[in-house]
Amino acid sequence: MPLTASLAQLGEDAQRASYVLATAPTAQKNEALTRLADTLEAQATAILAANRLDVEAAEARGMSAALLDRLTLTDARVQALAADTRQVAALPDPVGTLLDDRVLPNGLRLQKRRVALGVLGVIYEARPNVTIDVAALGLKAGSAVLLRGSADTLHTNRVLVSCLRTALEQAGLPAGAVQFIDDPDRALVTQLLRLDRYVDLIIPRGGAKLHQLCKEQSLIPVITGGIGICHMFVDASADLEQAVDLIENAKVQRPSVCNALDTALLHTAIAPALLPALAARLAPQGVTFKADPASLQLLAQAGHDADAASLYDYDQEWLSLTLGLRVVDSLDQAIDHIRQHSTQHSDSILTRSDAHAERFVREVDSAAVYVNASTRFTDGSQFGLGAEVAVSTQKLHARGPMGLEELTTYKWVGLGDGHVRG
Amino acid sequence: MPLTASLAQLGEDAQRASYVLATAPTAQKNEALTRLADTLEAQATAILAANRLDVEAAEARGMSAALLDRLTLTDARVQALAADTRQVAALPDPVGTLLDDRVLPNGLRLQKRRVALGVLGVIYEARPNVTIDVAALGLKAGSAVLLRGSADTLHTNRVLVSCLRTALEQAGLPAGAVQFIDDPDRALVTQLLRLDRYVDLIIPRGGAKLHQLCKEQSLIPVITGGIGICHMFVDASADLEQAVDLIENAKVQRPSVCNALDTALLHTAIAPALLPALAARLAPQGVTFKADPASLQLLAQAGHDADAASLYDYDQEWLSLTLGLRVVDSLDQAIDHIRQHSTQHSDSILTRSDAHAERFVREVDSAAVYVNASTRFTDGSQFGLGAEVAVSTQKLHARGPMGLEELTTYKWVGLGDGHVRG
Q1: Do residue B102 and residue A361 have CB atoms under 8 angstroms apart?
Q2: pLDDT tens by residue, B101-133
Q3: Most distant CA pair in chain B, distance
Q4: Pairwise CA distance, residues B337 & B360, whole Å
Q5: Bridge-partner residues for B320, per DSSP?
């Protein structure tokens, strides 16, 4: 099979199906989603059997426990996927909304209408739930999807894609709206990134290397994100007990996610009181510290261990119970540190000064900035967007959680009666 | 001078200045714009003298008359630049607008604030007015600019950039907010496209080759656009006289621009009556036709000359008085033709059928779609956006005319009182 030609064929098929999806009525899209939920439940045994093959092969190759956990489906997880799909059906349809509607001085009626994007290319790791999540959100947003999952998930994905296509056909929609690259050849990722004739948007869901590959190779606009080096600055005026609570929540509640805290910046006036209380709260929960000389000394005085931080440590997304610490002289120094080390995901200031809060909010250029709140809130469902396909850390098109609206575009519609330009 | 290092320095300087611009008060930005207008008027003699050097050198190299016209400044054109700059000062400031403001169920106040983009990289041809236009719009939108003009405009641009920097300083803003690559080496364009550490957005203003280079090489998001292969479909039910008027306007009023008409698709039921009337109106104005066999025959029967169109002709942006013609059987065939050949800029249907109008509007996936109106309206000032920096034909971030709002992004602001995620 000539791979390039067949990939282009997938793209062309997805584009043709996208024309139908773009104008499909809401009820028909929702029916496909409901049918999908039913099919997932009905096919649970087949899905779990296929997943078992993937999991066994991954175990034999020595995949880490954390990755195995992401790969593994259980009956409860299949039920959850079906429930999520029904929730997407219940969300409002973003397509067709009028964003603007006015009559120009010359009498031409000008509308700005929200419309479907077209074809979404999604490149992701060994997480079978992503197959259902992005296809369901894409469908609701009126777009076709071209999926490139990990080779580790091939058996599971084949069954899930078959469920998706069955549900589309049952609802009278083209099965071609879900395309799946059923070939583990890595060269196909690069080829997908050059399929700008058929694909309108690339969403990479994976690590920094995948994002860099997409930035380097893609002819198609890419939404990068999902990598969060997140900061909290504890200002001199912060409430000490609240600071301990917030740092604990941001670091410990779910350390493996992108909006978890990576570095706490402590004002020099509050550090001597805060650090011992913080270490006393966090160390028993398994948190270890990468500390600059000043915080290292304060911790030592209080009888707590910590490693000396290298500058390199401030550029780590820990995804673990490690916490970077640095004592700073001022709000300015905190902002400078964040400008140098943040991935522009989520950063927070803890302060009782309105002026400092407002300066932080204005000057820290991140997708989400917080005042006296945990960084853990950056999330589509927390923000009330209903669901999210990714968290964007770039500034174009979508910033922060990408929900259904962020999976659409708009067009201008000019309604005239023989209007010519003078 | 090690060019790469110096380019990175320009980027770093622009980014540092962008931090100041992003939070500068509206009045200060407007003062800089007003000072710029004054400076342009005061420096008109120096600007014109520098421009004379560029024009003479270009003439000696044999530059075409059309390009020379774009390169040439006159006293009136400098006055117009000053007037445009004052108009930008009068536009509302897009920065700081609240796009959303609500209290989540947990009590966290969540705002979506419109904010500056940061640093705009602009790559453009020998049009000195672009230097002032994009810098003025960027400044109003709170962003710094890193400009890469054509080598043909080097003398003029040096003086214009000096005017820009003077005006910024007079208003107490950092001169570094306008950076200019004062070196004709083409390799610097590629290097600029890889400066993702400092530059947030690339706007290419030039032909298809420049856009393709940017898509291929850029690590930075690019807004492509400005290339319009535009269609009008004259449906069977269209008003015949109105059709002649609209095609004339779209083709003849200003043939050299991107929203001018390239191909007219004529329903087979109206073509026999329309083509003779159209040729009689357009031929005397110098319009020549590239016609498919059916329209060629109809024109010949009416005694009009035309060239036979090749398929290749339907992929031309004519920018001239050439018009492609094709007779089609149906709305479906017209939509298929547009899907194959349109650059998704501006396409129009002429019809008296509401159902056909709505199908065309929904199914033609272009930045602007029109019903019974000329394609020539796709333009920031026509749309009431005040000014435009480019016309985007891509679907992400901005579609169609890009005004001040499209030169911004947003951030999420979470205002809490010790809020942690449960």
Answers
A1: no
A2: 999 999 999 999 999 999 999 999 889 999 999
A3: 82
A4: 12
A5: none
- The three-state DSSP-derived secondary structure of chain B is CCHHHHHHHHHHHHHHHHHHHHCCCHHHHHHHHHHHHHHHHHCHHHHHHHHHHHHHHHHHCCCCHHHHHHHCCCHHHHHHHHHHHHHHHHCCCCCCCEEEEEECCCCCEEEEEEEECCEEEEEECCCHHHHHHHHHHHHHCCCEEEEECCHHHHHHHHHHHHHHHHHHHHCCCCHHHEEECCCCCCHHHHHHCCCCCCCCEEEEECCHHHHHHHHHHCCCCECCECCCCEEEEECCCCCHHHHHHHHHHHHHCCCCCCCCEEEEEEECCCHHHHHHHHHHHHHHHCCEEEECHHHHHHHHHCCCCCEECCHHHHHCCCCCCEEEEEEECCHHHHHHHHHHHCCCCEEEEECCCHHHHHHHHHHCCCCEEEEEECHHHCCCCCCCCCCCCEEECCCCCCCEEECCHHHEEEEEEEEEEEECCC
A253/A268 Cα distance (integer angstroms): 26
Other CB atoms within a 10 A radius of the CB of residue B175 amount to 17
- Give pLDDT, residue B206: 85
3-state secondary structure B320-336: CCEEEEEEECCHHHHHH
Distance from the A58 Cα atom to the nearest Cα atom in chain B, whole angstroms: 33
Which value does ipTM take for this structure?
Answer: 0.94
Q: Is the pLDDT of residue B388 over 90?
A: no
DSSP β-bridge partners for residue A344? none
What predicted TM-score, i.e. pTM, was given to this entire model?
0.93
Element at A160 (helix H, strand E): helix A154-170
- Within 8 A of B395 by CB-CB distance, chain A residues are 117-118, 200-201, 221, 409
- Written as six digits, the tokens of B71 are 């390169």
Contact yes or no for B19 and A363 at CB 8 A: yes
- Cβ atoms of B161 and B416 within 8 Å: the answer is no
The stretch B355-382 carries a mean pLDDT of 96
Quote the pLDDT of residue B1: 40
Interval B254-293: pLDDT, tens: 998 899 999 999 999 999 999 999 999 999 999 999 999 9
Length of chain B, please?
422
Chain A, chain B: beta-carbon pairs less than 8 Å apart: 200
Distance CA A133, CA A139 (A): 10
Best to test chain A binding among B254, B339, B365 (most A CBs inside 10 Å): B365
Asked whether the beta carbons of residue A200 and residue B369 sit closer than 8 angstroms, the reply is no
How many other C-beta atoms can be found within 10 angstroms of the C-beta atom of residue B252? 17
Structure tokens at B213: 């280079």
* B365's tokens: 């996936």
